[in-house]
Each structure stands twice: as C-alpha cells, then as structure tokens.
Amino acid sequence: MTTATANIQIVPLENIVLNRFQREGIRDQARVLEIASSLRQNKDNGTRGLLQVPTARKIEGDQYELAFGHHRFYAFQENAADDDLFSAMPLLVRKLSDIEMFELMGIENFHRRDISPIEEASIFQAYMTQFNKTSIDTAAKFEKTDEYVRASIRLLGLPAQAQDLVSTGALNKSAARSLLQAYKLGGEDLVNESLEAITETLETLDAVNAQEEIMSAVRSSKNTKFLNETADWFSANKKFPHKHLAPITADVLDAVLKFEEGNRNGPKSARLEQFSAILTLLSAGMEVTSDSFPMFEEESLERLRVLANPGPCDKCPFHVVMESVHFCGIPLCANRKADAWEKKEKEDEIEKIGVPLYQKSDGAYAVLDHYSPHDKKVWSEGHADLRLIPAKYVWNNFEGVGNNFKVVAIGKLGADKIKKMTAKEKREQAEKESATKARAFKNIIEEHMKVFEWEVASRPFEVLANNTTNVESLAFMIERIYDGILDDDLLPESRQPIDAIVDNAREGKQATGAAQLRHLIAFAIAEEGHNVTFNFSETRDAEKPILQYAKEFQRLAQKWDVKLPKDFMQAGEQYQEELDKALNEATL
After folding, report:
1. Which of 199, 262, 298, 565 is the most exposed place for a label (fewest CB within 10 A)?
2. 24 Cβ neighbours under 8 A, 6+ residues apart
3. Are 219 and 565 in contact (CB under 8 A)?
4. Secondary structure of 486-501 in the HEC alphabet?
5. 503-538: buried (b, 16+ CB within 10 Å) or exposed (e) per residue?
6. Lateral strand order in the sheet of 325-328
7. What are phi and psi of 53, to 5 degrees?
8. Neighbours of 266 (CB within 10 A)
9. pLDDT digits (tens, 9 = 90+) for 137-165
C-alpha cells in the first residue's frame, strides 16, 4: 500500500518501473552495493537511508515510473531480502510529461562518472529524434555547446566494433574522432585497418598509441594521399581549370567505386554500362542518386560527383586534417587536380612568353644556347620557327623564359643550326644538356626529399617539443633555432616561408598554432640531426635516395630515443615511388 508524507510517497518496489527512456544494461553493480551500504547506515534518517529522494510520476494503476535513480532502486532491491524496511521506496511524485522524463533521465546520466561517449551521444540523438529538437536546443538543455553535441552524435557513425571500444574506455574521444576522420577518408575498410592495428596492442593501449595507430593506417593506406594545403590548386574554386582535367575512365571503377552487397560480383559489363551513364549525367551537370543507380553505394556516387566536378579541397567531403596534416580520400582526384593546375600554369606561361609549344608534328629540333649571340638575336627577333619544350629546372634561360621550358628551333632554322654545328659543338651541346639534366634530377630529388622530411620524417620528432604549448615561447625557440641552423631555402618549395608559418600560428587558434610551430621545430631538429649525401648522377642507378633518407632518420630516432610509426618505411616507399615518377617524367 502506498503512503504519503508531504510530497514524498512510500511506494512498494513491485509498483516501481524504470524510466522508459533509460537504456537497458546501464547497471554498475559496484555502485549499487556502495549505495546499499549507505542506505543501511542511514536507514533512520526519515527517508529510509536516501540522501536524495528520486523523482517519479504515477502511471496506469498503482505503477510509478522513476525519472531517475535506478541505481538507488537496485540498492533497495539488494537490501529488501534482509530488511523489510527496504521493500518500499520513498519517491517524490510529480506530474511529468514524456519530454520531462527524458530530460531528467539525461541530466542524471550526464552526472555519472562512468558515462561513455557513445552512451552520451545516444542520449543526444534520441532526444533530437524523439522530440524533434535541434542540436542547439539539445546543447542548451544539457548545458553543452552546439559543437559538442554535434561532435558527439558523429561518433554514432562509427562501426559497431569501434563504438564498443569507445564504450568500454579502450578508446578515448580523441581517438574516436580520429577514427571518424579515417571513416570519412576511406570508409569502413580504413576504420577496420585502424582497429586491427589498435587491437593488436590493446593490452598496453593508451590514447597516444591509439592516435599513432590510426595515423599510421591513414598514412599507409593506398586510398589516401597527403595534401599540400599551400598549393594553388588546393583552394582554387572558380578559377580552377576544369578543361585540363584528365578524362575519367572505366579504370577508376575498382579504385573508387563500391557496390551494394548484392552487386559486388555482378557482371562487369553491366557495371561499366551504368558507370558510363553516370558520367554522362554528371558531365551534363545533372544529379545522380542511389535510387536511380542501386548497383552503386551512395558513398561511391559522392566520390564520382567530386571527381566529375572537383571544388576546393578544404570544402570536399573527403578531405580531413589530422594532427595538422591534410589528407585526401580520393588520391585520383588530387592527382588530376595537380596535373590540371600544372597544365594551366604552363599554358599561362606559354601565352605570356608568346612562343608556341613544340608538337611532334614539328619534326626535328635543335636546342638553342642562350650564350650564343646568334641564338640570342633569333630569340629577340621572335623567329617563327621557335618553340618551347617543357623541362625541369632549366638554368640561365633566355630572357622572359622561366626554368620550366627549354627553347628550341624547328624547320629551316633548326635544320641550319644542326647542319652548322661541328662535331665538337655537338659534343659540347650533349654534355651541356647532360649537365642540365643532372642538375634537374638533383633539384627534383632534393625537393622530394624535403617534402618527405616535412610531411613524414620530422613529425615523430615533435615529441621533443611536446611540453611547450604556448605559441609565443615556441616562436621564440624557432627564431633562435633557425637563426643558427636553417633558412627558408631548406623548406620544401611548396611550403610557406618560416616567418609566414609563425605569423599564421600567432593569428590562429592557440592549440593549432602551437602544433604548427612544434612541427617547424621538429623539422629544424631533424634537419640538423641527420647528415646524408647522395651522388646525383644522370642515370640515378638504383640509389633510391628517399629510402636511404628514411633509414638515416631511423638511426637518428634510435639515437635520440624517438619512436617512429610502424609504417615509416612504407611511407618512404610511397614517396620514393612519387620521386621515381617525377624523374621518369623529367627523362621523357
């Protein structure tokens, strides 16, 4: 029988039910026993040992629904077997709507010390969906920020295994958000690769190791690519030269597209036919959906949309920033954009110079020498038989021509020059071209080595400056370090000058700015700590300079007790492949 004192009613335990919005399985037995002990010690306090009486509402019949306090209810059940006093529980009974019941449940749960990020996110999502609330409404009710609520809900997009690791505390929120970024880049496959690496070391796992494993998986994935955020094509929008983008062919199917489960092993001809139809629609500026093309997953169609009409990288759904490093989840798109922009720059330069580009149909040609008075005169007169050939790092060129073209003569002008050249001149010309090519190789190699050092090799050395988080103190360290060691010429060409990096860090957010400067300090330390020289021959033999460079950093890391990521040499192999490609293009 229910009795009442003031607003408090004593209700038999069999008449009490838990909040209908409370997630099942939320029971901490250690906490229940702790409360049960406290109840026994304070059972004569007038509220049967309760220091705070739970709130409830009356529902059908003699039933009462707890708004919160389910652990106290469990504690009463524990004690009831030995003491009839605990067979009924004091409740503060109020008239409460469903939304008020949910809100009281949520607030009570958020005060728990053991609430997991996934449970918290589930409460936010349920509140928004069941009661038609926005993230702003939810943030205001539960005293959080809008961004906090939205970031929490995004955790529910993780695969079940990842959510379980977050729920059990094996992964913290930072690691979970990194997994979300991995998911954004490479979908469930990349997340699973990260989880596989994490679970291998789960017994000794901490937040830093988890972050390292995720970053290693992202870096080593063939479906991701480092992005140079300072490149002109990275943020280009309306001025982007879409006309120079290489055609999308059927070869991208296996690399870019994912198929619905039932169609993964379907006839390739059918997939190619639909693929062709999709490209036709996208090229015409029309929308495509998975409803119209059920063979393809929505993520795949989104990747095709980006490929067909790429915008600025920082606005792309497949772009993320992890530990100040920019990544692309569609390497094919990044490569197409970089190549298109290079074609645009060459086209602009050719237009500015006013000399046509050499075509195979132009036939034989002779390379002009800017030291020759005759060739200088021909150039200044703008002879009709002059042409430009793309080249790498041409030194001391004709006036108005940069280092990306060599000037040649075709037709009668070229034939006359070839005819007049003596054997000695031809030999000297060949030697000069060989020396020019060797210098070009040297510059290409050095630039790729700088990029590898900046993007990969120096990053583990940031730990040497991790204890410093203040931007101004880091800036002071950089000024002293770089005055004595480095200058802007030692940074990759694609990077901003050192002063600009420092200024941007000062103007940006404290945490982000500090991370940028720690990277710059690590780069300086690594640059000073290693000492590698190479023989930059024209044939290049089998030196694999970046792999040698990576091995030197392995020795330096061992000497300075710096831990390198497990995929460090694998990253070196990827950068070596890019270098080999650049050298082959220069040879052609």
Report:
1. 262
2. none
3. yes
4. CCHHHCCCCCCCHHHH
5. eebeeeeeeebbbbbbbbbbbbbbbebeeeeeebeb
6. 225-227, 325-328, 319-322
7. -80, 125
8. 12
9. 999 999 899 888 988 898 888 888 888 88
User: For 293-299, which contacts have Cβ atoms below 8 Å and span 24 or more sequence positions?
Assistant: 294/260, 294/263, 295/259, 295/260, 295/263, 295/266, 295/270, 295/271, 296/257, 296/258, 296/259, 296/260, 297/258, 297/259, 297/260, 299/187, 299/258
Tell me how long the chain is: 588
Amino acid 389 reads I
* pLDDT score, position 173: 80
Q: What are phi and psi of 408, to 5 degrees?
A: -130, 165
Span 118-144, pLDDT tens digits? 888 999 999 999 999 999 999 999 989
Of the two residues 415 and 530, the one the predictor is more confident about is: 415
Domains and CATH numbers, the chain: 3-115 (3.90.1530.10), 158-223 (no CATH), 354-421 (no CATH), 435-587 (no CATH)
CA geometry: angle 356, 361, 366, nearest 5 deg = 65
Q: Which of 41, 48, 61, 40 is nearest to 10 (CA)?
A: 48
> Which token pair is 46?
């007038």
Residue 101: its pLDDT value, please?
Answer: 93
Tell me whether residue 36 is exposed, middle or buried, using C-beta atoms within 10 angstroms of its C-beta: 0 to 12, 13 to 18, 19 or more.
buried
Q: What is the percent of the chain where pLDDT is above 70?
A: 78
Q: What is the 8-class DSSP label of residue 457? A: I
CB-CB contact of 66 with 56 (8 Å): yes
Q: Which two tokens stand for residue 184?
A: 């954004």
CA separation, residue 486 to residues 472, 516, 526, 559 (Å): 19, 17, 11, 22
Rounded CA separation 536/447 (Å): 13
- Residue 134: per-residue pLDDT: 92
Contact between 162 and 137 under an 8 Å Cβ cutoff? The reply is no
% of the chain surpassing 90 pLDDT:
20
CA nearest to 328, candidates 305, 350, 312, 348: 312
User: CB–CB of 308/279 below 8 Å?
Assistant: yes
Q: Quick check: 180 and 155 in contact, CB under 8 A? A: yes
- Residue 137 tokens read as 């409404």
